[in-house]
What we know:
- There is one protein chain.
- By secondary structure, this protein is α+β, with helices and mostly antiparallel strands.
- Helices cover 34% and strands 19% of the residues.
- It has helices spanning 84-93, 99-104, 161-164, 168-171, 179-193, 207-221, 235-243, 256-262, 274-291, 296-301, 306-318; strands at 13-17, 36-40, 49-53, 56-60, 68-71, 74-77, 113-122, 132-139, 147-151, 199-204, 230-234.
- It has a seven-stranded mixed beta sheet, with helices on both faces. Strands 3-4 form a two-stranded antiparallel sheet. Strands 5-6 form a two-stranded antiparallel sheet.
- Helix 6 crosses helix 11, helix 7 crosses helix 9 and helix 8 (256-262) packs across helix 9.
- The longest helix is centred in the C-terminal third of the chain and has 18 residues, at 274-291.
- The termini are far apart.
Amino acid sequence: MCISISQVSRFRTNLFVGSSCCERVHGWFKNNxxxxxxxIRSSSVNSKSRWVxxxxxxxxxxxxxNTKSSVLGGAVPxxxxxxxxxxAKIQQQQPFGNLQxxxxxxxxxxxxxxVIVSDLETTGLHRVKERIIEIxxxxxxxxxxxxxxxxxxxxxxxxxxxxHGIRNDMVCRPEVPRMEEMIPIFLRYVxxxxxxxxxxxxxxxxxxxxxxQFLINEFNRCSYEIPPxxxxxxxxxxxxxxxKSVDATVKPKASLSALGDYYNLTRDGDAxxxxxxxxxxxxxxxxxxxxxxxxxxxxxLRSYTTSDLIAAMAKNKxx
Length: 319
């Protein structure tokens, strides 16, 4: 459901506030009460936080909170804003070698890594020609403002509304941002969840061949750089690996809906809507890590950098 917020600001987006707990690696997410809707202002000319855009300086307003959440056994701030200068320091500190290997070997990994589950809805399947029309995300650490969702005006007709239910009239409204307006809003959300001096892992189901390619192409189209401290994790190979050990008579497909049914999880909302898929994937992802007995280090070693994904995209294009 899309909530009209035109009374407040064109650049306002919807954040769903939920509670969750990351007490240990195998038990990241606990279901609590249904998330409540909260509107926050997402853009302001009086901002002190900024992000890197090629040849363009973009500003958005970001608040700070003293809210804390138990993350892998320790209480840490979950709403700190990290600006572009802090991100640059991360690059300077570790300029050589494999990022995933270095990070996985860090003994204090739980205090550095933020895991954010994400999902996109699009106007079609072509990674370059089609556009993103909805984005949602959830920080598995939980806490205040841990969940994000917004429609996006793609600037092109939506011809596949039968799949996700998102119609042209839903996105062609003054309060719905275009992608070039959404990127700094989404960056502010991600950086508000990032731990000081830390890294972010974006998780998506079938992300390597779909979601992540859309994000990379849209960031490039809008002249934005993906932050260098982002890693990307595709949960689909994890699902396929886990299902290999399941009895063939009950073995489900590796689709998100099939996995939800297999784990007897309740979906909140319609399938193929970004927030509903994110809330389900948050639970499925953690069940998969439990089944496969994976640690945070294991997940980091299976993740991709932006460069890894771009190289894979270029290779597939030549094939």
